[in-house]
Amino acid sequence: MQTGIRKLVSPGLIGALLLSGCSFTSDALWPSLSGDTSRQAVRVDIPPSQAEIRSQQTLTSPAPAPQVMTPAPAMIAQVPAQPSNTFVGQKVAQMRGDLGRLQGSINQHMADLNAIRATTAQNAAAYYGTVAAIQARLQVGTTPGNPILQQQWSQAQAQLDTLNLDIANMNSLSTRVAADSSLAAFMLEAARSTYGLAGAVDEDHRALATLEDDVNRTVVALDRILNELNGDLQRQTAYLNSERSNLASLSVGIKNGELLGQGLGNRAFASAAPLQASALAAPSGATLTEGRRPLVVIRFDRARVDYQQALYNAVSRALERRPDAAFDLVAVSPSRGNAAQVTLNSANAKRNAETVLRSLTEMGLPATRVQLSSTTSGQAQNTEVHVYVR
Fold this sequence. Notes:
alpha+beta; elongated
């Protein structure tokens, strides 16, 4: 009978059963076909592999929190020394007391440095907020000489002076740290020379070795503070000089009611080589203009000539191509007319060239990068100022 029943099972049905999954936990293997209920499937729990365990931990466990890098403390806990009552032991105990006072001074230096850095960050944020307000207003355009912007500029100038006080505080702290560094170096030499004193016992030399290690760590901590201070001073000094140039350029923008950009001196001083003495010699006007193409030509053919923005853009692009470039300002006057008219035109052209030079210095270009000269031209209809790249 069972043989006949098994013939009724098609291969497709067997395949479907085999492909239906592996969840034969508590049901009979062939409950409806074989009629044999004694053969029951037994559940076998296969433990997960190590790779699966790691995968589950990766998916279920929360990601570790990022570690915050905190500066190492200036000093570590002192190891108490146990010198004897000999002369060397008493000397070691005295130096241990001096070292404890020095380490307390170092901790105070670290606290002062952190306080100065926090104050500098607050002052810089306030300064940048004021400057950003001025630049935003100039970017959309405003009236020339806007009194509100002039007041904000004065506020930014005062905030920049506050940053200068922060630099002075850093200099004062650097002086104190350098003095303690010299003291630590002296204490290290004194500790090493104490090994040669007579009348010491083994406990004294062990305490002296501990003291020497602590003094060495103190020297390293002082050097680290001093290096950080020197780095801060260099950054803040360069930042202050750069922002003074930017404020001067910003003053020109407020005067004209439009935004110029950063000070030209920031790019000019980036990789500028010192000018040679021969380059400072004033050549003749004909040599300056003959065969040369001017970078900018400013024609003073009316009472008010708005040349600042175009001049700034041209000089800025020139400094981007050649950071060490210098410039020649040539006052060009018409040569037509009688002698009195030629003299009057020449005086007006020189005065206009001085005005252009003042504009360049206000934009941040050092005056040593600009050379003035004058000439006459039969083709000029009005007084002109030519700017040449040298």
